[in-house]
Amino acid sequence: MRLRKIVQDYFTFSKKERNGIIVLLLVVILFAVASRAVFLFEKPDTLGAENFLEKIAEFEQRQDLVEPRRSLFLFDPNTIDSLALDSLSVPVSVKRNLLKFRTKGGRFFQPEDARKIYGMNDSVFSEIEKYIHIETTEKIREKKNHGRVQKKPEIVWCKFDPDTCTENDWLDFGLTPKQSQAIERYRNAIGGFKTKEQFAKMYGIGEGLKDSLLKYAEIKTPILQEVARPKVRQAVRAQIELNSADTVVLESLPGIGRVLSRRIIKYRELLGGFYSASQLLEVYGLSQECFQKIEPLLTIDTLKIKKLNINFSSAGELSAHPYIGEKSGREIVRFRSKNGLIINLTALINEKLLGRQQFEKMRPYLATKTP
C-alpha cells in the first residue's frame, strides 16, 4: 500500500499538466520530421572526374602564385642570408632556428654540426647533407687578404755584443719592449754579461729566437792579468738593493731561482721591507749556505721600509705582520682603546703586549705618529 501511494504521488498529473506534456511531445515530433524532410528538397552537386581534375589544377596554380617554389642548392650555413634561406626547401622552423643559432655566435665547422639546430631531424638532414658546403677558416682568410700585400718585418742578423745593445737594438732583433727591458735589468744587476751561458739564462724569450741570438752574440770581455789581479772581476760586480729589487734582479744572485725570488718579494711585502740581510734566513727554502753566498752582494736601504702606525692600525693590519701575530694584535688594540694613544713604544714591553725579543725585531717597523 505504501509503494502504491508513492507511485501515485509521483506519476499523478493534473489536467493542465497533461495538456502541457501532449503539446511538448507534438513539438518534438514536428522538429524530427522537419529535419528529415529538408534533405528531400536538396539536390546534390554532381562533379565528374574531369571537373575534379580541373579543380585540383586550379588549386595548385593558386598555390604557386601565393608561395614561391623552393628547391635544394649548395649553401654555407655560416654565410647564407635570410633571402636565400627562404628559397631553400627546409622547414620554416629549422630556418628560423639556424638564424638564431648564428645570431648568438654559433658557427658550423662541418656538415654534421647542422644537427645542432633544433628541429633538424634525420630525414631533413639526409636531404640537405650533400648540399652543405662550409668554407674553412683558411679560405675565408685568403679571401679577406686577397689583393693585400702582407709585409712582414725581416730580421737582419749580424754579430752583436749584448753588453752594448740598446733597447732599440733588441727591438730590431724581434724582441718586445717588455723583453728588452727585462734584459736591461738583468744585465745591470749582474754587472754585464761575461759569458754566453749567462745570456742563455734569460727567460721569457722563445727558444727559436734565443738560439738565433746566441748564434750571433759575441761577448767582448776585457783582457785581465789573471795572476796579478785575480779578484778584480769579482770586485766590479754591482751590489743589489734588497728593498727595491724585482724577481729578475734577484734571480741573478747565485742560488736564487724563480721560486725563491718570488718568496723573498712576498715576505718583503708582508714585513714592509728588510732592515737586515739576515732576515732572508726566515724565507722558506733559503739555506744558510745560499745566504752566505749572496750576503756580500746585498745592500739595504732602510728608508724604504713601510712603517706600521701602532695607534691607527686595525687589529687585522697588526695581526697580518709576521712579527706580531693575531693574539698580540688584539691585545694592542684592546690596550689602546682602554688607555688612549701609545706615546712611547716601550709601553709595548712594559704592558707585556710584546715580548722583548719580539719587540726588538718589530721596532724598525713601528711608528707612533702619522707621517
Give a quick precis of the structure:
The protein contains 19 helices and four strands. The chain has helices at 2-11, 15-41, 49-66, 82-86, 92-103, 122-128, 137-144, 167-172, 177-190, 196-200, 207-216, 232-236, 247-250, 258-271, 288-294, 315-320, 325-339, 347-350, 356-362, and strands at 240-241, 298-299, 308-309, 366-367.
Description:
The chain is mainly α and 371 residues long. The protein is 50% helix and 2% strand. It is built from 19 helices and 4 strands. The strands form 2 sheets. Strands 1-2 form a two-stranded parallel sheet. A two-stranded parallel sheet has the order 3-4. The radius of gyration is 48 Å and the shape is elongated.
Which structural traits does this protein have?
two-stranded parallel sheet
Mean model confidence by pLDDT: 79
The outline comes out as elongated
Strand order of the largest sheet: 1-2
Through-space gap between termini: 121 Å
Structural class: mainly alpha
Helices and strands in order, then pairings?
Layout: H1 2-11, H2 15-41, H3 49-66, H4 82-86, H5 92-103, H6 122-128, H7 137-144, H8 167-172, H9 177-190, H10 196-200, H11 207-216, H12 232-236, E1 240-241, H13 247-250, H14 258-271, H15 288-294, E2 298-299, E3 308-309, H16 315-320, H17 325-339, H18 347-350, H19 356-362, E4 366-367
Parallel strand pairs: 1-2, 3-4
